Amino acid sequence: MPHQTPAPEHRKNETMRYRQKREAILNAAAQLFDKYGFKGTMLSEVASKVELNTNSITYYWKKKEDLFFDCQMHTINTIDSIIDRAATGQTPAERVRRFMSAFVETLVECHAGRYPAIMTFRDLQELGASHTQIIFAAYRDMFRRARNLVADGPLKTGNKMALTVRTHLLLAQAQWSRTWLAEFSITSYTRMADHMCDIILNGLKGPGFVWSPTSALDQRLIAIAAPDSPNHGFLAAAISLINEVGYEGASIDRVSARLSVTKGSFYHHIQSKKDLFAECIRRTISVVEGMQNMVLQSEGTGFEKLSSLSRALVGFQFSPHGPLLRISTWSELSNYAHFHNRVEPVRWFIQNVTEMFAAGMMDGSLRPIHQQVGALMVVGMISGATTLDKWVPGSEKTDVIDLYVRPFFEGICCPIEPENSN
């Protein structure tokens, strides 16, 4: 083996400083992209966050697209490494528990500033094909490996879609926890992870209670319709875009292109982007509050009320009347002053769900769990449904309520019904 001369000490220090600064930039960029999206984030803002000028950022990344690409790949690679740690478990339940625990341990490192932040998978269409092909290939591979955590044995025709949908549920809950855990002390993250694992693995339903997707309350909730609007087509297109790319990314050009109309035609119907998205919020809140009020005023157990509300909101998403804004998006829109007062209902929704948990625990229809964590995970489950058809193609043609909502209430490892697995 040839003799290798050790690198000079100053060269080692330069390499370390370069790596540390690069990770600091990656961390700052991921946080900003996550909060404001690709369109809403400027390189100058990233530079300011790490006390550099914009030109200094381009020493590490020539273009914003390259930085965004590396943030996405960093997130995929991080989740991949978490899957590696979880894959040593002997059973699906053990692997899922290890995955969630390791995911939250990683968030501790992120929030403490010891590891670059990870982010959501949105705005990918902002990148060119050379970037997106790599990201989607890496994501698909990561997703398949995550699905192996949930699977008990080989994939078959009868269980593949069910396991794929459950994997989306698991990843959606993990990604959503990045947002709501930030409201807790870092010292409580491990405890919160235990509560999350309990809910994901054991569900919410109390012993002896039956999953009833065709109950009388379900039928009444299905009859609730969104307010009539002559702009329904524009609203549906705008809501879909916000769910996919956030407020900044959902431009008028994109809304018009999705409907195959000109910008002039758009402005003939709606005066401004703010007016359009304000109407999107009103429409969503009208449906959500209408369903909540009906459930709260109805007779029944806490489990009956909560499960009916969950089925109705997810079902509406896939109905001809949908879609609705992701509940988690309401918090994103609160960053914009002109929408702030309109998105307060997200807090009320969580309070009402928490009330249903309390009622269900008193009547025995819901298992004793951490009520606040449970309510936040209900939000995560409902929000995750808005991108289910994007990440699990073909799922919109299945019984989404059975494949997606039921495992949340009965546990992600609950038996798969053969007649509903295709």
Provide a descriptive summary of the structure in words.
Helix 9 packs parallel to helix 14. The chain is 66% helix and 0% strand. The N terminus is likely disordered. The chain folds into two domains: 187 residues, Tetracycline Repressor, domain 2, CATH 1.10.357; 153 residues, Orthogonal Bundle (Tetracycline Repressor, domain 2), CATH 1.10.357. The protein is built from 19 helices and no strands. The chain has 422 residues and is an all-alpha fold. The longest helix has 28 residues.
Q: What percentage of residues falls in helices of 4 or more residues?
A: 55-70%
CATH topology of the largest domain: Tetracycline Repressor, domain 2
Q: pLDDT below 50 for ≥5 consecutive residues: which ranges?
A: 1-5, 336-340
Total strands: the figure is 0
* Average pLDDT: 87
Question: Cα distance, first to last residue?
Answer: 57 Å
What's the arrangement of secondary structure elements?
Layout: H1 9-36, H2 43-49, H3 54-60, H4 64-86, H5 92-111, H6 129-150, H7 160-180, H8 189-202, H9 216-222, H10 232-249, H11 252-259, H12 263-269, H13 273-296, H14 302-317, H15 327-333, H16 345-363, H17 371-384, H18 388-391, H19 400-410
Which descriptors would you attach to this protein?
single chain, 422 residues, mainly alpha, Tetracycline Repressor, domain 2, 19 helices, globular, disordered N terminus
Put the structure in a nutshell.
66% of the residues lie in helices and 0% in strands. With 422 residues, the chain is mainly alpha-helical.
